[in-house]
């Protein structure tokens, strides 16, 4: 078992650190945010992720997992994983400030040869630069590995333990071997490659998934115009194994901390080597259009939205997380407020952060309360409790049941049994 340090305890760092301690490694997680570390030391998770908190507590109890904000506490680690944020800058490129700050501290702290594993999503060439940067600041030998992360928020632990693949990129066979050993208890196929290819695998994978989403969303717009049903079209397409059925759900666009920023960063990266990535630029454009779809539908239906009481169900960028980064809900609420609507919102996990962002919005404590007296309702995130709400609740709680379903949660047959107006994505309107 290995002595491991994880720098950055966000979604990726925390889940990875907890998972590695769970399979027996001795893990120290470090973050510069003292509030996070304080919570974690008390066995509380600063993020919402199913089963994470009990797993933190269990591994703390076994003395395999600890949390610190002091770099000195990680100086003995054999492997240092970097999982700090790489947010998007104004021009779309990745901001590498945090990663180089972490590198500088690691260089000053370590007291022996070490393997540095970059889990953060970084532009091609960054790991090589980072290696040189650390090496220039320490007498000890630095072995660099790119090990991009593919976990999905809301499903993070399952993805960690049962992921499709682990990508290990390095020019150093000893480091590759060390990282393969670290992950071996997971029993997940591992792929080894060079640093640059590993870095690009992450961007190419996210860009491809985003392309599938924008593609089916474009098909959904055609469906609406020709009277076809996008669900049937997607099902028929997905039965072809060359296409596959995942990521073919039409909706109001992708969001989150990865797809929007990684697609823009790849366009930027391509531009840096004088390649115009036309396809990916269109994918991004289609997604921006799609995030505005519900408000466009509402305006088409009602004309002015001034003073309209509108309920938004779901705020997180997807179910199972409290993450609001680049969530379609932000675009929708912002635009509705500018249109003069009166908004009530509900989300099972993301409301604390949303309250800070939108002081003008009323937040309800459950779905039923949120719908009470609403003139229009919109489903933005398909949480189970929202998806499974009987349609009779809309009839009972709203003045007139008018629902804009941005996630196609209900079958059209089901809707037709109720007295309501129903607008969804890529399917005929009802009512
Ligand atoms: P996050 O913003 O949730 O967490 C980053 C953490 O790093 C924060 O807690 C911050 O305080 C800490 N930090 C910043 N600078 C530091 C420093 N110098 N030393 C120690 N800690 C520092 O980020 P995240 O969502 O976990 O993403 C991390 C990386 O992983 C990003 O590059 C992201 O693109 C990538 N990624 C994210 C996901 C995801 O689903 N969130 C999935 C795959 C890859």
Automatic annotation (TrEMBL):
Top-level taxonomic group: Bacteria
Enzyme class (EC, first level): oxidoreductase
Residues in UDP-glucose/GDP-mannose dehydrogenase C-terminal domain copies: 311-412
Pathway(s) the chain acts in: Nucleotide-sugar biosynthesis; UDP-alpha-D-glucuronate biosynthesis; UDP-alpha-D-glucuronate from UDP-alpha-D-glucose: step 1/1
Example GO molecular function: NAD binding
Keywords: NAD, Oxidoreductase
Active site: 258
EC number: 1.1.1.22
One of the Pfam families matching this protein, by short name: UDPG_MGDP_dh_N
Binding sites annotated in the UniProt record for substrate: 150-153, 202, 247-251, 255, 318
GO biological process: polysaccharide biosynthetic process; UDP-glucuronate biosynthetic process
Gene3D superfamilies: Cytochrome c1, transmembrane anchor, C-terminal (1.20.5.100), NAD(P)-binding Rossmann-like Domain (3.40.50.720)
Catalysed reaction, written as an equation: UDP-alpha-D-glucose + 2 NAD(+) + H2O = UDP-alpha-D-glucuronate + 2 NADH + 3 H(+)
Residues that hold NAD(+) according to the record: 31, 36, 86, 121, 153, 261, 325
NCBIfam families from the UniProt entry: NDP-sugDHase
Family, per entry: Belongs to the UDP-glucose/GDP-mannose dehydrogenase family.
Name this protein carries in UniProt: UDP-glucose 6-dehydrogenase
Organism phylogeny: Bacteria, Bacillati, Bacillota, Bacilli, Bacillales
């Amino acid at each position: 078992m290995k002595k491991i340090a994880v720098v950055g305890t966000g979604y990726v760092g925390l889940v990875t650190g907890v998972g590695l301690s769970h399979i027996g490694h001795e893990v120290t997680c470090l973050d510069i945010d003292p509030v996070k570390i304080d919570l974690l030391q008390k066995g509380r998770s600063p993020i919402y992720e199913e089963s994470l908190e009990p797993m933190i507590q269990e591994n703390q109890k076994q003395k395999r997992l600890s949390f610190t904000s002091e770099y000195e506490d990680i100086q003995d680690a054999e492997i240092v994983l970097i999982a700090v944020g790489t947010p998007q800058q104004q021009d779309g490129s990745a901001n590498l400030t945090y990663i180089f700050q972490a590198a500088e501290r690691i260089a000053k702290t370590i007291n022996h040869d070490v393997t540095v594993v970059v889990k953060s999503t970084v532009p091609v060439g960054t790991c090589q630069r980072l290696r040189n940067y650390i090496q220039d600041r320490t007498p000890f030998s630095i072995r660099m590995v790119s090990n991009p992360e593919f976990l999905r928020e809301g499903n993070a632990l399952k993805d960690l333990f049962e992921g499709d693949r682990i990508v290990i990129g390095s020019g150093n066979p000893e480091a590759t071997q060390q990282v393969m050993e670290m992950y071996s208890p997971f029993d997940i196929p591992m792929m080894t490659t060079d640093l640059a290819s590993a870095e690009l695998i992450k961007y190419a994978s996210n860009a491809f998934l985003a392309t599938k989403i924008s593609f089916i969303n474009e098909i959904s717009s055609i469906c609406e115009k020709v009277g076809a049903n996008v669900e049937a079209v997607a099902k028929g397409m997905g039965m072809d194994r060359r296409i596959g059925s995942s990521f073919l759900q039409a909706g109001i666009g992708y969001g989150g901390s990865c797809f929007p920023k990684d697609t823009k960063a790849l366009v930027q990266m391509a531009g840096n080597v004088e390649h115009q990535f036309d396809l990916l630029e269109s994918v991004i454009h289609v997604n921006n259009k799609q995030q505005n779809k519900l408000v466009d539908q509402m305006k088409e239906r009602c004309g002015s939205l001034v003073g309209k009481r509108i309920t938004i169900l779901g705020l997180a960028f997807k179910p199972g997380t409290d993450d609001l980064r680049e969530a379609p809900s932000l675009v929708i609420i912002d635009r509705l407020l500018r249109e003069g609507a009166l908004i009530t919102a509900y989300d099972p996990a993301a409301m604390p952060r949303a309250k800070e962002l939108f002081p003008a919005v009323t937040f309800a404590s459950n779905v039923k309360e949120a719908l009470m007296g609403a003139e229009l309702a919109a489903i933005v995130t398909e949480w189970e409790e929202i998806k499974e709400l009987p349609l009779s609740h809309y009839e009972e709680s709203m003045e007139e049941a008018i629902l804009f379903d941005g996630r196609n949660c209900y079958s059209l047959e089901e809707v037709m049994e109720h007295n309501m107006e129903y607008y969804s994505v890529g399917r005929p309107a009802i009512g």
